[in-house]
Design goal:
Blueprint: H1 17-31, H2 37-44, H3 48-54, E1 69-77, H4 82-92, E2 96-102, E3 109-117, H5 125-133, E4 138-145
Antiparallel strand pairs: 1-3, 1-4, 2-3
Length: about 150
């Protein structure tokens, strides 16, 4: 009988360093900066066996949103091209856009909701949201629903 998984949210400060290094290896491999596990573990200073022991059980907090449908909410200024900029950024992260809804602007601001599927995303959600917040005219940016 398979034991049910139980998840905890724990500050990395109290964990053994090997856990953070496993996350580092995963990040290095996902960016393509280093191609092999062997080279990546050497780079961060852990053994291959430590990496393989923990790799399927340790994830950054943001990665729990991978493979999910998320609804993003934005308040944007009403000018031509702003929605296009947001959509371009989501597309460049390789998220699959499922729906887009933009309300009629009131007092120069419009509410926009975008539902995305995150399975194929190459960027993490934290990075995506940070980059969207930097787009000129984006006043508010949040994850509305998971």
């Amino acid at each position: 009988m398979k034991q049910e998984s139980v998840f905890f949210l724990v500050d990395s400060f109290i964990l053994p360093e090997v856990f953070s290094k496993v996350i580092e290896v995963k990040k290095i491999l996902s960016t393509g900066k280093i191609k092999t596990v062997n080279d990546a573990v050497k780079e961060v200073g852990i053994s291959r066996s430590a990496y393989y022991k923990y790799k399927d059980y340790i994830f950054p907090f943001y990665e729990t949103s991978r493979g999910k449908v998320l609804t993003l909410f934005f308040v944007v200024e009403d000018f031509s091209g702003i929605l296009s900029s947001i959509i371009d950024r989501i597309a460049s992260a390789k998220a699959n856009i499922l729906t887009i809804n933009q309300n009629i602007p009131i007092n120069g601001l419009a509410d926009v909701t975008v539902s995305i599927e995150t399975f194929e995303m190459k960027d993490d959600m934290q990075k995506l949201m940070t980059e969207i917040e930097k787009i000129e005219g984006v006043r508010r940016c949040e994850i509305l629903a998971r």
